[in-house]
Design brief:
Layout: H1 2-11, H2 16-36, H3 41-59, H4 65-80
Length: about 90
């Protein structure tokens, strides 16, 4: 879904706002899985909140309502995803 959103954004007229949105989506895509693997639950939640805030900030500059809704949906899923990585088993 992120890929389709980025393609849609890249097809739009270039301006600073679109570049900011694409950069934020790229950052979230790169860091989200790493964030979920943080061993410290508090650090993990804090980083999820930071990434969520980034998406919230850039959603405000998306001029197309449907795409703005997609960014908001991504933000909501981001803060709703959490899991514990099982500790390594010693052999």
């Amino acid at each position: 879904m992120i890929f389709a959103l980025v393609i849609s954004l890249l097809a739009a007229p270039e301006n600073a706002n679109w570049n900011r949105v694409v950069a934020a989506l790229q950052l979230v895509a790169e860091e989200h899985h790493e964030t979920l693997e943080l061993p410290d639950a508090d650090a993990r939640r804090q980083r999820q909140q930071e990434l969520s805030q980034l998406l919230s900030d850039v959603a405000l500059v998306v001029p197309v309502p449907d795409l703005r809704a997609e960014v908001e949906a991504l933000r909501q899923r981001l803060v709703g995803a959490d899991y514990e990585v099982a500790p390594r088993r010693e052999r």
